[in-house]
Known about the structure:
The protein has helices spanning 3-11, 21-29, 49-62, 91-105, 113-127, 165-168, 172-179, 196-209, 249-263, 268-277, 290-298, 311-327, 344-350, 370-379, 390-399, 411-420; strands at 40-44, 67-70, 82-84, 87-88, 132-136, 154-157, 189-191, 213-215, 220-225, 228-233, 237-241, 285-286, 302-306, 332-336, 357-360, 384-386, 404-408. It is of the alpha/beta class. The chain folds into 2 domains: 3-277, 3-Layer(aba) Sandwich (UDP-N-acetylmuramoyl-L-alanine:D-glutamate ligase), CATH 3.40.1190; 285-420, Protein-Tyrosine Phosphatase, Chain A, CATH 3.90.190.20. The strands form 3 sheets. Strands 4-3-2-5-1-6-7-8 form an 8-stranded mixed β-sheet, with helices on both faces. The chain has a 6-stranded mixed β-sheet with strand order 12-13-17-14-15-16, with helices on both faces. The longest helix has 17 residues, at 311-327. The model has no long low-confidence stretch (mean pLDDT 93).
Amino acid sequence: MDPISERLRQRHPQRIDLSLGRMRALCAALGDPQNELPPVVHVAGTNGKGSTVAFLRAIAEAAGLRVHVYSSPHLVRFNERIRLAGQLIDDATLNAILDRVEAAMGDGAEATVFESTTAAALLAMSEAPADLAIIEVGLGGVLDATNVIERPLLSLITPVDLDHREFLGDTLTAVAGEKAGILKAGAPGLVARQPEEAMAVIERAAAAVQAPLTVMGVDFDAWAERGGMAWQDQQRFLDLPAPALAGPHQIDNAALAVAAALELDLPAAAIAKGLQTVRWPARMQRLTAGPYGEAARAADAELWLDGGHNPHAARALAEALAERQAKAPRPVALIVGMLANKDAGGFFEALSASGATVFTVPFEGAAAEPEALASVARGHGLGATPCASVDEAMERALRLGAGRVVICGSLYLAGEVLGASRETWPD
Length: 427
C-alpha cells in the first residue's frame, strides 16, 4: 500500500456512507472550495466514466487548456486521483492539503475516506490556476461526495447499468435516478446511449431541474468508418481519427467527450489530436513491460489488461475480443479476479461465447475465492481453473498455448498487475 493510502486507511472510517451532510459541513469549514473552481464538467455513470474523462482531458489539453481532474479509484498510487493543471499532485502538496482537511473536521468528526479525499481534491483545485476542472463521481450521483458542486458548466452521464446494487438499487430505473442526481438547473446535460427505461428516468430528472439534454443516438451519434471515427450532429459532421483506446465501446465514450468538447467550443484539430494522444491505463491496455509482458512476448502472445468488473463492462470486453479475433484468431485465455460482491455470473455470461479458457486468481482485499469464481465460470460453459496467483495463471495459460491473454475482472487486480509490471501512470 502506498504511503498516502496507508495514511487515509489509518485516519478515516473504511466505509461507504452515501450522504452529503458531513461533506457540506467539511466544505464549509474549508471555505467552500467547490465554489472557487474553474468551470466544472461533472461526470457520472456506471461504465465509461474514466475513459470519457481521459478523452475530454486529452482534447482540452490539446487545445492548450490547463485541466484539473479528479477521478477514482487509483491503480498504483493514490496521487493518480488528483491532477492539478495537467500534473499529478505530489506527495508534499497532498499531505499538506490532507492536514488542512483533517484540521477542519474538528474533534469527533468522522468523514469517510472518499469524503476526505474529495474535499482535499476540491481544496487543491481551488488554489491552483486552471481553465477547466473535470470531476468524476465516485458512486451514484445524488449523494456522492462530489455532488456538493452546485453550478457545473456541463453534466455528463455515461452508460448506466447495474452495479453497486447494495447502494444504488436493483433496477436500472433506480440506478439511473441516482446518476441523474448530478443534473443541475441551467447546466447542459450530455447523455450517452442508454437503455430505454434508464433514459426515461434521466429525462424526467432533467425536466424537474430544467437542465437541457443532448442525447447520443438522438441529437448526435458516432460510428467507426474507414479506420477512423465519424461524429455527427444536426449542424456538423466530423471525420476523426480512431480513438487510441482499444475496443468498439470506446467509440461511444469518445463521442460523448467530443460532444462535451464542442459545447466548450474546442477546435476540431484539438479533438482529433486528443483522440490520438489519450491514455487511460487498465482499459484494454496492451502490456509489454515487466515480467508478465516479457513472458507473453517470449511466448509470442498478446497480453491485455482490463479493469471492467460488471456485466456491462464484460460485454464491452467481449466485443473488443471478438473484434480482435475476427482480424487475427488466436487461442484466448482470461485471467480473472473479482471482488466477492460483484455479479460474477453476469460477468461470465457476457463472455460465455468467447471460447476463452479461464484462470481465476485472488488479489489483496475482499476478492472472491478463486475456486468459487471458477465454479461460476464453469456454470456458464467456460473451462476454468483456480490458481494461487497471477504468476501461476500466466504460466498455465502460456503453457497451454494461449496467444491472447486478458487479465480482467477488477481495477484492484489491475492495479496489482500494473505495480508488478513496473508500469507508470501517464504524465
